[in-house]
Amino acid sequence: MTERETLTWDDFGRAGRALAQRIADDGWRPDLILGVARGGLFAAGSISYALEVKNLHVVNVEFYTGVDERLATPVMLGPEPSVADMSGAGILVVDDVADTGETIKLVRDFCAGHAAEVRTAVIYEKPHSIVQCEYVWSRTDKWINFPWSSEPPVTSAA
Predict the structure, then answer these.
(1) Which of 38-42, 59-63, 90-94, 134-138 has the lowest mean pLDDT?
(2) CA distances from residue 85 to 2, 132, 141 in whole angstroms, order as listed
(3) Which residue intervals define the domain Phosphoribosyltransferase in the entry (predicted)?
(4) Can you give the residue ranges of every domain in the chain?
């Protein structure tokens, strides 16, 4: 069995605050936070509240299909973020993990042609990620059990 790291809800609370503090300590304030659905939505919301940045957007990217199972390349699902909203903005792209880094690279590169500046933040970054994020809470080479995806889906009792 693959060795795993478990993020609890309490750890997640600490991670969101710590990432926000690192961004604030850097003297940078994003104009727009772009959360990568689905896992990045939790972190993006947490950072958004901590930094008091209400301009929060979502991009949906499909890549992982199971534990260590993924598509050949990540795919941005519609609707795509509005490039008009990005024009000249400082954008913080937030995801739960930069594993291969392919997802965050896809979103960062999509924003880069329209924004004044794009930075990235993740709860976890893996050593083999092709993207080194500006803001990282923890680095690991383990598979991560996130509190929002550790339990099986809820189904009807009928």
Answers:
(1) 59-63
(2) 41, 25, 35
(3) 12-149
(4) 4-62+71-79+88-142
DSSP string over 42-78: HHHHHHHHHHT---EEEEEEEEEEETTEEEEEEEEES
* More confident position, 75 or 102: 102
Q: CA 35, CA 113: separation in Å to the nearest integer?
A: 18
49 Cβ neighbours under 8 A, 6+ residues apart: none
Architecture per CATH, domain 4-62+71-79+88-142, reads as 3-Layer(aba) Sandwich (3.40)
- Spatial CA neighbour of 137 closest among 15, 13, 5: 15
CB 62 within 8 A of CB 74: yes
Residue type, 41: L
pTM, entire model: 0.88
Q: Which amino acid is at 76?
A: M
